[in-house]
């Protein structure tokens, strides 16, 4: 089985699951989708994009020049969708297990307790 994706990779794949994006859009969508919990730096983003591309989970999908700057676009691959889906399933199973343990010990769930994911 493939290794668990990092939090950064999870959010990048999540952003790309809704379609083709360039770097700045990925940064924005990642922050929005994580409700501000994830704020990637540009260097972190592009290092992660390089790793995801090397792993075959995303691929470049064109480039354009806007206001004198190159804008590189990326899309998620079928393998990326499979990996993201597996990660979501793992997170859901983990959440169910944690909820069950909390219920056994009669701990109340604290909504939005600052979870990293």
Give structural attributes:
117 residues; alpha+beta; 16% strand; Arc Repressor Mutant, subunit A
Straight-line N-to-C gap: 22 Å
CATH superfamily: Winged helix-like DNA-binding domain superfamily/Winged helix DNA-binding domain
Please give the domain count.
1
Please state how the strands of the largest beta sheet are arranged side by side.
1-3-2
* CATH-defined topology: Arc Repressor Mutant, subunit A
Give a count of the beta strands, DSSP E runs of length 2 or more.
Answer: 3
CATH architecture: Orthogonal Bundle
InterPro entries: Metal_resp_DNA-bind_regulator, Tscrpt_reg_PadR_N, WH-like_DNA-bd_sf, WH_DNA-bd_sf
Organism: Marisediminicola antarctica
Domain Transcription regulator PadR N-terminal: 12-85
Protein name: Transcriptional regulator
Q: How would you describe the overall organization of this protein?
A:
Strands 1-3-2 form a three-stranded antiparallel β-sheet. It is elongated. The mean pLDDT is 89. α1 (7-17) crosses α4. The two termini are 22 Å apart. The chain is of the alpha+beta class and 117 residues long. The protein has four helices and three strands, in the order αβααββα. The chain has a single domain, classed as Orthogonal Bundle (Arc Repressor Mutant, subunit A).
Brief rundown of the structure:
This protein has about 120 residues and is of the alpha+beta class. It has helices spanning about 5-15, 25-35, 40-55, 80-105; strands at about 20, 60-65, 70-75. This is Transcriptional regulator.
């Amino acid at each position: 089985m493939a290794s668990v994706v990092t939090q950064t990779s999870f959010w990048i794949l999540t952003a790309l699951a809704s379609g083709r994006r360039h770097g700045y859009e990925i940064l924005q969508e990642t922050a929005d989708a994580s409700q501000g919990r994830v704020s990637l730096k540009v260097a972190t983003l592009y290092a992660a994009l390089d790793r995801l591309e090397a792993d075959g989970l995303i691929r470049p999908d064109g480039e354009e020049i806007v206001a004198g700057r190159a804008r590189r676009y990326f899309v998620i691959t079928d393998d990326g969708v499979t990996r993201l889906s597996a990660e979501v399933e793992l997170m859901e199973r983990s959440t169910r297990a944690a909820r069950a343990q909390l219920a056994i010990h009669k701990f109340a769930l604290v909504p939005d307790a600052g979870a990293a994911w």
